[in-house]
Request: fold
Amino acid sequence: MDTFFWGQLFLLAAETKELTPLEYIFEKNFINTAILFGALFYFGRGLLAKILGERRSKIAEQLTEVEQRLKQAEQELAIQKRNLAQAQNEANLIRSRAQESAKRVREEILTQIEVDIARMRQDSQNELTSERDRVIAQLRRLTLERTFQQVETDLPGILDSDLQARLIDQGIYMLDQRLELDRAG
Reply:
């Protein structure tokens, strides 16, 4: 096909009688040009084969290196995925333990609050009972004091010697009864 093209080009140039620089070289120095292209092809082929061979070996080395890096990256990715899965498992375990601990602490706090409330109610009840008993005792003492004061003021006019003797006898009798009960019990 190349020769057909060049042949057509020569025929066209011969008809028009105008030669382009490329045509001029081929027409005038066809043999020199053929020798030049032949030498370039013969010597250049080895050089070109050498350059292409070196390029091919560099590309092969680079491909091998890239494949090794890819394998290393895949291994590292697998390791990191395992580490991630392990970390997620540990995080889930920690989260579940924290939730369990929070529930337990919450229950302990609620139980302690209930105990404290019960203790406070009991303390307040005891305090109220104690205060009531103290007030009742104080009222009894005041009542007795007033009664004794009233009796001391009214007694000399009411109490004669017969009544006084009967009261003393009755008091002695009651003390004897009490002593007998204490001895029997």
In short: Residues 30-158 form the longest helix (129 residues).
